């Protein structure tokens, strides 16, 4: 169980980057961007084919980010310049990316098992530090019978994700970031201030899909392959992460909201892992479990809020009744 939870946290923190991208388009821009299902694969495809052709993993990942930005920008152009409905713009781009991703890889699947990746390139240096042994000794002393093979992926991803979260927080407080948030809240108002909302939408969708493609590139290197179907359902997983995080941690400040999105992605992976441990559920039930998790995350806060409101009304009625009783006496 410990190893399963560890793997869930490990992959969850990578998917958190994808969730941050979905948050930017879905919450900040109020744009239902289905490009995500395609740009996630684009990130993995560009990184995988670049690595196979001898490009260093870090540069290959950078290429993936650029490709993701381009995909998102095209969706923005379709919507703003082509005047195509936001939902349809994303669907059209998602369909186009399926063929583009096949073109990039040249086949449906590219294996990276014997290729250098960002993670396995660090393992030699990481092993010499002795951190794995120290952390595993702590787990063993606490009674763990199995321990992780290496902590390098988890710790590296914690640093990368925190750095991107802080950059996102900073960006959303800049003039461009504030204009982006205002565009999502009230496009007509921000346009009346002479702001170019078309460019803001294009840039916002570009950044959103750049983050999604980054997650795709890292997942491909983490899993050891890139597959043309690995992006199916990513938009739902991203929305689930955003909704779960917002329900658990709240959205009082921008920094708190981005933290909530990251935590939501990790919680989603842990819940999914635990659900698949149930005997009658199978790996093919993943999408069904995702739908149930999203429904629970949407309904639970409303039920809790209605119960709190009912409790408040009961207390108020009890206070009024006790006051009337005292006056009659």
From TrEMBL:
Coiled coil: none annotated. It comes from the Bacteria. It is a multi-pass membrane protein. Signal peptide: none annotated. It holds the Pfam family BPD_transp_2. It is found in: Cell membrane. InterPro entries: ABC_transp_permease (IPR001851). Keywords: Cell membrane, Membrane, Transmembrane, Transmembrane helix. The chain crosses the membrane at residues 6-26, 38-55, 87-106, 151-172, 200-222, 228-250, 257-276, 288-305. This is ABC transporter permease. It comes from Gracilibacillus caseinilyticus. The lineage of its organism: Bacteria, Bacillati, Bacillota, Bacilli, Bacillales.
């Amino acid at each position: 169980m410990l190893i399963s939870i560890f793997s869930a946290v490990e992959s969850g923190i990578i998917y958190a980057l994808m969730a941050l991208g979905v948050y930017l388009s879905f919450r900040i821009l109020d744009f239902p961007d289905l490009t995500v299902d395609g740009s996630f694969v684009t990130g993995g495809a560009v990184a995988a084919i670049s690595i196979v052709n001898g490009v260093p993993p870090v540069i290959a990942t950078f290429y993936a980010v650029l490709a993701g930005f381009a995909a998102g920008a095209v969706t923005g152009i379709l919507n703003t310049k082509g005047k195509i409905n936001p939902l349809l713009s994303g669907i059209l781009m998602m369909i186009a990316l399926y063929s583009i991703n096949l073109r990039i890889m040249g086949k449906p699947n590219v294996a990276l098992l014997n290729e250098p990746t960002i993670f396995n390139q660090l393992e030699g240096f990481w092993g010499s530090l002795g951190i794995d042994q120290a952390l595993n000794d702590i787990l063993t002393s606490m009674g763990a019978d199995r321990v992780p093979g290496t902590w390098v992926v988890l710790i590296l991803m914690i640093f990368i994700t925190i750095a991107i979260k802080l950059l996102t927080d900073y960006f959303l407080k800049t003039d461009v970031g504030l204009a982006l948030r205002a565009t999502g809240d009230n496009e007509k108002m921000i346009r009346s201030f002479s702001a170019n909302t078309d460019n803001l939408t294009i840039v916002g969708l570009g950044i959103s899909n750049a983050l999604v493609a980054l997650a795709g590139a890292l997942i491909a290197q983490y899993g050891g392959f890139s597959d043309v179907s690995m992006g199916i359902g990513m938009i739902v997983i991203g929305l689930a992460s955003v909704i779960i995080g917002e329900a658990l941690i709240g959205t009082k400040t921008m920094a708190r909201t981005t933290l909530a999105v990251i935590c939501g992605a990790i919680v989603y992976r842990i819940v999914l892992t635990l659900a698949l441990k149930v005997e009658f559920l199978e790996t093919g039930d993943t999408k069904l479990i995702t739908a149930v998790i999203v429904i629970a995350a949407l309904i639970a806060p409303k039920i809790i809020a209605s119960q709190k409101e009912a409790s408040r009304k009961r207390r108020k009625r009890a206070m009024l009744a006790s006051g009337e009783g005292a006056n009659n006496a």
